[in-house]
Sequence to fold (706 residues):
Amino acid sequence: MKDIEGVKAEGREPFASAVKAGLEGELGLDKNAVADHARILSNIAIVALGFLFGGCHLVFGSYPLGLALVSLLPRGVWSALIGVAIGSLTLGRSGIIYAMISVLAVFLRIVISGKEKGAARLFSESILLRTSSAVISGFVSAVYEILLSGFSLESILLGASMIILPGAVTLALSGLFVGGISMPELLFGKDSAIFSKKDDGIKLTLFRASALILILLISLSLDKYSIFGIDLSFVFAGLVTIVAAKRFGALYAAVVGFFASVGVSGLYSVAFALAGAVSGAIFSLGGLYALISGLAALSLWGAYAGGVSGFLSVFPEHLIACCLSFPLFKYIEREKGAPRAESVRRKATDMVGTMALAHRNKISSLPLELEKPLSAVLPIIKDFCNDDSAAEDYTIFLRMLTEARAASQEERDMNEELTDKLENIIEDFGFKDGVVRAFGKKRPYVVLAGEDKDGVRITDPALKARLEGECGVKLSRPEYFRRDDMVLMECSSEPKYRIKSGSAKMASAKGEVSGDTARVFENGGFAYGLISDGMGSGEVAKRTSEFVGAFLSSMLGSGASDTTVMHALNSAIRRGKDECSATVDLFILDTVSASASFIKSGSASSYIKRDSSLFRIRSETMPIGLLKQIDAEVTGAEVLPGDFVIMMSDGICPSGDDAAWLPELLRRPIEGDLNAYASLIIEEAVKNGAGSDDMSVLILGIEKNE
Fold:
């Protein structure tokens, strides 16, 4: 495994992890405690916002912002309600009704969202239903005002405002909660502004529009507060303008500056727009230059528009905003423009393409590798058969080659449906310009690349877990590669299950050779258990069953279907030197997907043992080699870690039906190793009258591959 430079090399930790670990160690906090402190700070901010909105007047004597806030938020609703209630009560007697109406809005939301079971669903209703809560609560306040004051122009205008404005504000701010975008990501350089899909661009536009409206409303709410003559709304306007200039550049900063101040003063809103435009244009030369230039532009407009009074109305506030914003600059990255995003995506595409090409070339050689098992089995066939040139054999082997080629092509091609799903996952982990590709349907291979300077995101275990969940298979330990700021990760499918085995067999007569063959083998991501009973006894039966084992262990897992391989086996046995046949009891476990099945031709019953429960698998078919058309039955099965698959030849139960002693024995706990348990079954069979035929037992234990 190639560790990403700076992430694991020489035991170094990523910067973010080091800071987090230091914070936890210095304060004596664990991860949960740090998260709790973050939630506390978030709730304090929501309480403060609720307080501002609760006492903010808009038009015609209405106070709709607090009502809109408690109707809108998906989290922190109780904190918002506390802030809104306190802010409303500062209005005096008239504020009591606004506080009660806010409580009503929260109650309506509980009724609506509480229809879903579980506390986690509380306040998770759609934006439309949240808006409905705001409108209904506003309507109640309107009715109360009309009942209190009677019908008059003032009461009607106030009532109409309280019906319309809370719902309108709720909708206007709803863009803040769509698309999974967060304000910290937008402001502190997590590349939220660059999206790979058109839909994401629309979500970002809605988010930014709602953010501008929120800035306007906060500025309005701060307008009535001042400290020593310093207008807090202008301080806020200056602060958000400077942050926007640093993060987004001149144009967007001008828009933010205008929206942040236009609700307080249309005249001086131009000053803040100029400050944002000038600062945003000069930030590339240095933060201090940008702040001084923006302050100068704002002061000149203030002096031009209002003389000395105008200068003093904006200069002190913006100077304070400059001082407050300067320490934040090291945390704020300049938004990457479209050319930068295209460059990142092109690099990611090139890296993924290189790995994908290597993978495709590797898979494309698999059909050629069918020659290896064919070469191995052909001498056996020639030695076993009288006629090795039958047209039927060539047809069957051609079908095997065709199926193997199709199977390898399926694993070689890109899985477009899975790739689309994985793209959404990597975007959730911050790879907005990253590229991911998934190949294959049964054995997914995943490769992704993107920009990750410190490697924290791509090495996050949660990313691999999400990829595994979507692929539906266990993925191998990732391999990482770095090229400058670009990182690449690749994973292939890995077995979920493995098997352990034990076996025992006994000939029908002392001194005779057993005609049974028991084998366990693995090919192509599949594990197999086989018992074959050569019909008859002695060397001919042994030779036949051993041929079945050698043939199947060579050909299964090569890409050809199991059914076609069985047809080839049947044809080969029918052309044998000796007139013979054999039973086939074949267990197949896909170790990657964990699916299992049995193929039975004339074999005895098999069992799946799960604790003390038994599941019997049986079929009524003829041994292979007797008929021109194969008589085999395929039965699907479910196996879990801890299960045991018990297979046996028909010598264990001479009548073909289960002896009464067998289920009772199989339900007992398995003690000792599996070889001893298989021998125990044969011993019990002999005690209960068996022994006239060869006996074989194969035990397979299913284990989870950790």
The longest strand covers residues 497-506. The chain has a mean pLDDT of 82.
